[in-house]
Automatic annotation (TrEMBL):
Organism from which the protein derives: Gossypium mustelinum
Gene3D superfamilies: alpha/beta hydrolase
Entry GO MF terms: epoxide hydrolase activity
Official protein name in the record: soluble epoxide hydrolase
Purpose: Epoxide hydrolase involved in the biosynthesis of cucurbitacin and mogroside tetracyclic triterpene natural products (e.g. siamenoside I and mogrosides IV, V and VI). Cucurbitacins have cytotoxic properties and exhibit deterrent taste as a defense barrier against herbivores. Mogrosides are nonsugar highly oxygenated compounds used as high-intensity zero-calorie sweeteners; they also possess pharmacological properties such as regulating immunity, lowering blood sugar and lipid levels, protecting the liver, and acting as antioxidants and antitumor agents.
SUPFAM superfamilies, per the entry: alpha/beta-Hydrolases
Pfam families: Abhydrolase_1
Highest rank taxon of the organism: Eukaryota
Lineage: Eukaryota, Viridiplantae, Streptophyta, Embryophyta, Tracheophyta
Length: 302
């Protein structure tokens, strides 16, 4: 069986670790938080056997890729710039794009900024929301859920890192990757991650060895790089004013589980079921709702 290859690509001023396998049309996979290229290990092996070249980088700030210290280095423009440079390094004009969680948010913006580089998009968990010119992103979440909502709690540099450091990293990964609680996660300042539900026994699709792979990489790199994506959200809002009102111009398939946290944010069900997401795309959109699946779709029932 062909093995996954690991290379380092210099792009947009950073060194990016890239996992790849296969030959043929390229599928580019983008992971979320707190994840790595390793999120897509099963998909890489499966789809490469069907005649695709599957490519999954550690995004800026994660794993074996560089992690600039400043949150201002983690705007969607930086991340999309990294990926455009990756495509150039691979010598490819257009790819099929797959994103999950933060990877989905980056993928939406990749399609918005550079539709000329994308053949089609499959996005998981995070629907496309057009920019609201009246309120900054984090401010909107704070008004909806309060200061303890995880996105709001992640804003202060060092605070979330201190909460993560109080718990064994393997347990942190289990809490995130195995949760099936659709309620918005809140992290009170006093209790930190201890407020999140204790992880259940590992499901059949996730082993201790796989948890330990993630834990080892986050022990080495830390969580700051991934947290900086959240800390750049309001900056993204400011920088994207010129893109207000634009639609996605590539074919899209969007998938969200019925236990996904994002599906239970007020207004999201109606937004998806009433065709509002479809109204934001110029090409055909297929919306799927798998039952009994949580936020971490790349793992769940792979």
């Amino acid at each position: 069986m062909e093995k996954i290859e690991h290379t380092t690509v210099t792009t947009n001023g950073i060194k990016m670790h890239v996992a790849s396998i296969g030959s043929g049309p390229i599928i580019l996979f983008l992971h979320g938080f707190p994840e790595l290229w390793y999120t897509w290990r099963h998909q890489l092996l499966s789809l490469s056997s069907l005649g695709y070249r599957c490519v999954a980088p550690d995004l800026r700030g994660y794993g074996d890729s560089d992690a600039p210290p400043s949150p201002e280095s983690y705007t969607v423009f930086h991340i999309v710039g990294d990926l455009v440079g990756l495509l150039d390094a691979l010598g490819v004009d257009k790819v099929f794009l797959v994103g999950h969680d933060w990877g989905a948010m980056i993928a939406w913006n990749f399609c918005l900024f550079r539709p000329d580089r994308i053949k089609a998009l499959v996005n998981l968990s995070i629907p496309y929301h057009p920019r609201n010119p009246k309120v900054k992103t984090v401010d909107a979440y704070r008004a909806l859920f309060g200061d303890d909502f995880y996105i709001c709690r992640f804003q202060v540099p060092g605070e979330a890192e201190a909460h993560f450091a109080q718990m064994d990293t393997a347990k942190v990964m289990k809490k995130f990757l195995t949760t099936r609680d659709p309620n918005p996660p809140c992290i009170p300042k006093e209790t930190g991650l201890k407020a999140l539900p204790d992880p259940p026994a590992l499901p059949s699709w996730l082993s201790e060895d796989e948890i330990n792979y993630f834990a080892t990489k986050f022990n080495q790199k830390g969580f700051t790089g991934g947290l900086n994506y959240y800390r750049a959200m309001n900056l993204n809002w400011e920088l994207m004013a010129s893109w207000t009102g634009l639609q996605i111009q590539v074919p899209v398939k969007f998938i969200v589980g019925d236990l996904d946290i994002t599906y239970h944010i007020p207004g999201v069900k109606e937004y998806l079921q009433n065709g509002q997401l479809e109204s934001q795309t110029l090409k055909p959109l297929l919306f799927l709702l798998p039952l009994a699946l949580s936020n971490f779709l790349p793992f769940d029932r792979t």
